[in-house]
Every structure is written in C-alpha cells, then in structure tokens.
C-alpha cells in the first residue's frame, strides 16, 4: 500500500470566527458557531475549559460568571452541575437576535453537531489548571476522525492554539501532524530571532495581538517561515490595514465584516 500523505494549505487571509459569531448568539454556543458557519468562516474558534470530572467544554473564562446565568469555577464543578446553566452572553456590543436558554456545549457535543462540516481552531486555555486536557482533546479528535484531515479545499480540519508553549509541545509530541499556533500577547520587539527559530520547531506560526504587531515584525516572522494570525480585529478598516501589512489570518467577532472584505479582495 502507498502511504497516504497528509498535506494541507491555508487560505490567506484565513477567516477565524472568534467565539463563533458572538454578535448573533451567546459566545461559544452551538447557535454562535452555526451562524459563523452560515457566514462562511474558514474556522470556528473554540476556547476550552475542563470540568472537575474531566470533560472539555467550550468557554473562554475559567468561571461561569460572565458568559452564563450561573456562577463558579469550572474546575470545581462537574459537568452535570455546569449543564444546569446556559450560555447567555455576547463578547461585545448589542445583539439583535440574542437567544436565551442556550446550552453550554461540551467539545464532544460540538463535534457531534458539526462533524466534518466546519474546521476547528481550538485553544487549550489555562492548561496548568487542567492537567490532562491535551490528552482528552486528542482522544476526541481521534474519536471523531479529525486527525490528518482537510476540507474539500485542502484546509486542515483542526488547528490547535495556545498561549502555553508547554501545552502545544505536549500536543506536538503526541500528534505532530496537527498544525499549531502559539498565541503571543506581547510586543514582538522583545522576542529574539533565536526564540522564533525555537518556536518554528513545533508551530506553524503565531497568533498575535495586532495592537502589538508592526508590519516589519510580520515580515520578520515570515522570514522565519512562521505565519501570522492577528487577534482580535473587529472593524473593517483595521482588518484591511493588517491584511495590507501581510497577516495570514484574522480572528474576529465580526466574521461577516471579514467575509465581506475578503469577497472584495
Ligand atoms: O485565540 C486567539 C484569541 O482568542 C486569544 O485571546 O482571550 O480571546 O482567547 P482570547
Ligand atoms: Ca481564544
């Protein structure tokens, strides 16, 4: 048998629906991801937290307080307790179509719901607080046949992102085929070329706070063969500016604005 080779390519700019489409439905809920899919995002972005009984759920914060009708730290609650509450909150601004009583989804429920019909850009959040979260993520990716897969355009079904190098290294060690993005929330002028060479050993690029990122730094990252996905840009003018600077992708709460812009390119 000829061994199948897993190759992929990313569109430029890659359109990443940050927390789904949180202007249309509560962030990190199935309706929010549904809306992002309908608008045509390349990826739905999912932040992960882990319950006391070891279940991965989609949520940005470590506690339920901001985005749900409940309270408490997720690591101290079992899934059954978390499931009593609902996703209720947008990231930002006014929502015209806010739905109430929306379920807080587990990662498994998201995979069951969307299957291979979307691409997933998954963040291991607070991995120090959740030992084993990478293993659980990889188990689910395997169970839902999401490893070494692309969509019909050759775009990888899954990218994993984290602010934690250790978390990404754990994933890389176990599944080197998964494209990884290291999130950076600091000024790139403080990051040496040696550091970039080190990162390139396990990641395909960086997710960078656009407010701390210059055009020259984007060029330098490209010079090290690292792609650059900028977070989180929510207005068309700034999106256009950073596309002109050469970023390879954008995280946005307003995926509709980004898709409109990409259509005009
Ligand atoms: O994952 C990219 C961006 O989402 C990082 O910031 O805090 O929104 O997860 P945060
Ligand atoms: Ca995130």
TrEMBL record:
<dbReference type="InterPro" id="IPR017946">
    <property type="entry name" value="PLC-like_Pdiesterase_TIM-brl"/>
</dbReference>
<protein>
    <submittedName>
        <fullName>Glycerophosphodiester phosphodiesterase family protein</fullName>
    </submittedName>
</protein>
<feature type="domain" description="GP-PDE">
    <location>
        <begin position="13"/>
        <end position="262"/>
    </location>
</feature>
<dbReference type="GO" id="GO:0006629">
    <property type="term" value="P:lipid metabolic process"/>
</dbReference>
<dbReference type="InterPro" id="IPR030395">
    <property type="entry name" value="GP_PDE_dom"/>
</dbReference>
<dbReference type="GO" id="GO:0008081">
    <property type="term" value="F:phosphoric diester hydrolase activity"/>
</dbReference>
<dbReference type="Pfam" id="PF03009">
    <property type="entry name" value="GDPD"/>
</dbReference>
